[in-house]
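in:
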């Protein structure tokens, strides 16, 4: 019977779930012979030790961006697990709400908390996503024969086109369409009428 002790250096690399050890015995007239783990069936089996390591996680740098008007942008993000065995599960939250990447962030400062969890424990870090409102969208209105064509860039997809016969109205109506998208712009064609018709984009 041969007993030997091995030392595992730390830190153990991320995603390492076990450590394997096996010795070699030699002597006059025999060998080399590989040692065998008696708890495993078969011959010359190495000893495999399951590793349990507490999770470690690093968050990305803070993110600052501008929205298209008030349309919330969709942003991808990821934290990095630097250690942990078994492999940690990573979750992201804004407050109590669980989010996933990519995520549509509202205007303002959003604090994202990343948590890495395994059977050993948890580790957290946080980063912010700051979204500033951008410039308001601009409508283009041109005459085409007996029609007018209203258009705006499709980067402002969260805005709705409204119309009314009075510019100072408090009862603007949602334009029913149909709408067409071409070359990065949203278009709508409206027949020229004998009455006034004003258009605006509303968030």
């Amino acid at each position: 019977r041969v007993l030997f002790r091995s030392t595992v250096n730390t830190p153990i690399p991320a995603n390492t779930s076990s450590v394997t050890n096996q010795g070699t015995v030699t002597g006059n007239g025999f060998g080399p012979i590989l040692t065998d783990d008696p708890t495993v069936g078969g011959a010359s089996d190495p000893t495999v030790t399951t590793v349990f390591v507490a999770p470690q996680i690093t968050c990305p740098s803070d993110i600052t961006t501008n929205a298209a008007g008030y349309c919330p942008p969709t942003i991808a993000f990821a934290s990095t697990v630097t250690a942990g065995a078994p492999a940690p599960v990573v979750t992201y939250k804004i407050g109590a709400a669980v989010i996933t990447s990519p995520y549509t962030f509202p205007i303002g400062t959003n604090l994202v908390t990343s948590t890495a969890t395994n059977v050993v424990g948890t580790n957290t870090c946080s980063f912010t996503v700051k979204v500033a409102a951008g410039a308001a969208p601009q409508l283009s209105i041109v005459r085409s024969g007996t029609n007018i064509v209203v258009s705006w860039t499709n980067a402002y997809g969260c805005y709705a086109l409204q119309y009314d016969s009075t510019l100072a109205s408090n009862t603007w109506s949602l334009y029913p369409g149909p709408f067409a998208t071409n070359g990065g712009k949203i278009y709508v064609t409206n027949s020229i009428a004998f009455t006034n018709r004003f258009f605006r984009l509303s968030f």
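note: The chain has a mean pLDDT of 88.
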